[in-house]
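batch_manifest entry 22 of 60
target: CBPD Carboxypeptidase
source organism: Thryothorus ludovicianus
requested by: lab member K.T.
priority: normal
notes from requester: please return tokens only, no post-processing; we will run our own comparison against the previous entry in this batch. if the run fails, retry once and flag.
--- input ---
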Amino acid sequence: GSVVASYPYDDSPTHRLTGVYSKSADDEVFKYLAKAYASHHPIMRTGKPNCPGEERETFPDGITNGAQWYDVEGGMQDYNYVWANCFEITLELSCCKYPPTSELPKEWENNRESLLAFIEKV
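--- output ---
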């Protein structure tokens, strides 16, 4: 896990593991939507999720192009964009993929304003 808003494309023509910016035709729209979410999240907006084992990982403005972060062949956000014309971003909301129940109220508080800002963009 991490704390970042990721946008298409997740896959790149070279299929390099990381570091390839894979720009979609709607790149600016996707960045706008990702920033709408990230800018309201107290951790995400810093671009420094500080996840255990990944302390050096940073994301400017709390967002990343999926393939630039790591290449995923056959990902859902790419599939939906290409085949159904659905604009989808992936939200990584926690360093822990399965946070304990006791942390869920804090996670809700961290994400509430971001979610409302994102919904307003619809």
